[in-house]
Amino acid sequence: MLEKEKTDEELLKAVEKGSLDDFKVLYERYFQFIYKIVYSILKDREDTSDLCHDLFLEYYRKANSYHPSRGSVKSWLAVRAKSRAIDYIRKKDRVILKEQLLYQKESTDQSVEDIALANDDKKQLKEALQHLPPAQRQAIYLNYIESLSHKETAERLDRPLGTVKSLIRYGIRNLKKYYLSPQDLQRGDRHDA
What we know:
Distance between the termini: 63 Å
Shape: elongated
Mean pLDDT: 79
Radius of gyration: 22 Å
Number of helices: 9
Helix content: over 70%
Strand content: under 5%
Number of strands: 0
Structural class: mainly alpha
Order of helices and strands: HHHHHHHHH
């Protein structure tokens, strides 16, 4: 007699308990689905394959974070895939931007005036950061200076992801208040774009 095919929830429960056989079934059932989601965002086969591999390891390790009350297993897998793909792009873009800035810094002959202005800007930024509450300052530093994703910043600070996003958003608003003149703020000048 043939064994009845397990539901997605049953598979995930078994994976949570360490079942490699059930993990293989889950992998075979959803690999193409996850691959399509990630590829639609990354547009690169090699990066997509790497990220899908990481995602399925994450699904295996974090199967216990699935809650049926929040939706189906398929939607849980899809949301995690989309989120990780977007984080991947953000982190990659920050690394590329950082490398470009370093290259430009090394490859350009700066005048004494440029160096003085850059040093003044750094001094102003350090001073502005000191006016932020410590939690906002840490979150902005890790996210922008260390090029960590929101998720990685949350893990490093041991805080919920939503809290970290709020800390960064409010920190940036506070920095804008520090940098913009009172006239700019009254006029409603916005630099969010």
